[in-house]
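arginine deiminase (Legionella beliardensis), 362 aa
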Amino acid sequence: MKIKQFSFCENPNTAILRLTRNFGLKKENEPPNKKLTAKEKAKRKHASLVYEEMSNLMEKMKEQGIKVITVGEDKYIKNEVTYLYPDQVFLTDTGHYFVDESKLHFVPAFFKYKSRRGEEETPTKLAAALGATIWPLQQFDEKKIIFEGGDFIQAPNRSLFFLGYGQRTEKRAIDAMRQIIKKTVIPIKLLRKEFFHLDCCVLPLPNDALVLYEGEYIKDANGHFILDKRGLPLLKPGSQTMTEASRCLLREIYDVEKIILLSTAEALAFGANAVILKSDTDNRYKLFVNGDSKGREIEESIALQNHLISYFSHTKTKILEVTENMMDIFEVPYKSLHYSYGSVHCTVEETFLPQINASVIT
């Protein structure tokens, strides 16, 4: 079934972020009189940079007419010590919003790793405050189902969802999500630990297009993709991010001419980990991705290697072409999070809110 056959659905117009100065820290700030080690000082310096880059992203979003909400930190107390979740800025992993018949719904995550379980509590409370119906996956199985929000992606303005599984989210989540959403959920089996969430290699675009990284593509002497008998681009052995069946499924849905294949350098610089929101101000899509203006002043291959940018210029041009002037691209510095295996999309929970209580807007 081609993507054009799927019914219309509102595109997210609101970004939810967890802005914190404690990224990477396991405890709340130590007393001022305690002498910090060099390692602790480096962690706090990095946490400050993450805060700065996330704050900048929020301001850029607001400038473009995107609603922005911030959610508080999750903490827990043990032996009278307040502990933090060091990775909780990666908010998209805490669950996923969806809209059905103009009603808001939220599916909370159940993390694979015990160290992250608890990060979803405050975001779930926020979802309830926004009027969302909460759907814990555990109601569908006596054994808890592992599900992380970075594995669940919706095609812009389509009632079509993709669910990655095999690295973090488990296969049992597929049927559970189908029961909840009652829409088409396409399973994508992920194969590589470096691309452990679907949002690391799949980015649906407006105008029924797709950004995709399936592995290291093999090209001929002229730089053209070499295809196999089924028309799939050949990949370097061992580099596949997903199964061949998953690759074929995506091509059954998307027209080949609307699929943009990322290079390995772009994928490693989190080119697929962008977030797309629709502005209420000008009714245009806004894509936010890692990038620094300084990266455009030097050789692009070097800039990509150093994560100063996430797209070659020709990739940006292709994205604008296939979306037919529906979308604007904004590059924001975000490399401070890349060495913790996340980027822009990882830190943003997307939802659609027609009206919102002013008390929850930052």
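The longest strand covers residues 95-100. Residues 284 and 325 are 9 Å apart (CA to CA). ok done for today
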